[in-house]
Amino acid sequence: MLSQTGIYAIRAMSYIASQQEDEKPLLSRTIAEEMQIPVNFLSKILNRLAQAGLIRSIRGRNGGFVMTRPKSEICVREVVDLFMQLGDHKDCLLGLKKCDGSCGLHHRWSNITEQFDMMLDETTIDKVK
Are 28 and 64 in contact (CB under 8 A)? Predict the structure, then answer.
């Protein structure tokens, strides 16, 4: 249900959050190595996260990336929404343009998407390991 970019973004944010105890900026190279994310791809993700204000970039010799808010205040949805159109997963599972909800899959799929939405809204970055 999540795109590869969305998954990488969550992994990058959770790593930055887990390393912020000493508030030392993290190099993108370190994040890429630890989270097994291609460096060039991660660079684009980090730039988007910084544009959204979830992290900030510090330039210079001791530069890198740091969180802008406490990790317990950033929900996973904030991260994923930057990289995906999450409403798409609520469409008809069979791909029908008009779905009247009468098929046997409709209600089961609705329950799954509601649970998925709750998980994104209620899970904060500090809970992702």
Answer: yes
